[in-house]
């Protein structure tokens, strides 16, 4: 949580358009901490480790991008999009969730040896309970491209957001499972986790 607060301060200076995604992520982390404290997971240590790895796969490259470092990553695109679309917060949050769930979650899952499917379902529920209402609120507050798409869809905004995020999580899980069976995981379980650069800044 502290690292993300530091990233928020950095984004306020370098890419204010990225703040809506970071603020939604702060809600997610707070809800995960609440869930861990309430004992809703069968193996809280595995979920805590998954959550930390999931966070680092996003926070480390995004911080590097905001500081102008290379090489390019998908989060470099996210920063450029946030700077080019400052009045489209809903679109920015959806872009961040797309990158984070489809690219970062499978890598975090590859490191989560022994993660119980029931705990993964509960983890997904916390994500949806955190992100869904935020997307619906942004759709209501901002007359934006993404909000118009949600309003014209056959599903209400919150339900459509739930459907989109649920589909992305399923893709991430299947990528993880298929990679494990094929021996070609997105990230080898023996690979080092991303270094938390906040420890050295």
What's the SSE blueprint?
Blueprint: H1 2-14, H2 19-38, H3 44-66, H4 74-84, H5 89-111, H6 117-141, H7 145-152, H8 157-182
Helix pairs in contact: 1-2, 1-3, 2-5, 2-6, 3-5, 4-5, 5-8, 6-8
Can you walk me through this structure?
The two termini are 16 Å apart. The protein is globular. The chain has helices spanning 2-14, 19-38, 44-66, 74-84, 89-111, 117-141, 145-152, 157-182. By secondary structure, the protein is an all-alpha fold. The model is unreliable at 152-158 and 180-201 (pLDDT under 50). It has one domain (2-200).
A few lines on this structure:
By secondary structure, this protein is mostly helical. It is built from 8 helices and no strands.
What tags apply to this protein structure?
201 residues, mainly alpha, 8 helices, globular
User: What overall form do the CA principal axes indicate?
Assistant: globular
Q: How many domains is the backbone divided into?
A: 1
Return the string of H and E elements: HHHHHHHH
Ranges where pLDDT stays below 50 over 5 or more residues in a row are: 152-158, 180-201
Radius of gyration from the alpha-carbon trace, in angstroms: 17 Å
Mean pLDDT: 76
């Amino acid at each position: 949580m502290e690292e993300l607060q530091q990233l928020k301060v950095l984004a306020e200076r370098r890419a204010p358009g990225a703040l809506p995604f970071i603020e939604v992520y702060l809600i997610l982390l707070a809800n995960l901490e609440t869930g861990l404290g309430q004992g809703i997971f069968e193996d809280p240590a595995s979920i805590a480790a998954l959550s930390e790895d999931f966070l680092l796969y996003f926070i480390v490259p995004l911080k590097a991008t905001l500081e102008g470092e290379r090489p390019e990553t998908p989060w470099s695109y996210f920063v450029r999009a946030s700077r080019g679309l400052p009045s489209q917060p809903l679109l920015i949050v959806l872009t961040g969730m797309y990158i984070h769930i489809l690219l970062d979650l499978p890598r975090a899952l590859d490191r989560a040896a022994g993660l119980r499917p029931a705990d993964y379902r509960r983890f997904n529920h916390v994500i949806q309970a955190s992100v869904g209402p935020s997307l619906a609120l942004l759709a209501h507050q901002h007359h934006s491209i993404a909000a118009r798409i949600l309003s014209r869809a056959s599903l209400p905004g919150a339900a459509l957001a739930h459907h989109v995020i649920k589909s992305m999580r399923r893709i991430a899980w299947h990528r993880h499972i298929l990679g494990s069976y094929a021996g070609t995981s997105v990230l080898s379980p023996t690979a080092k986790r991303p270094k938390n650069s906040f420890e050295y800044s």
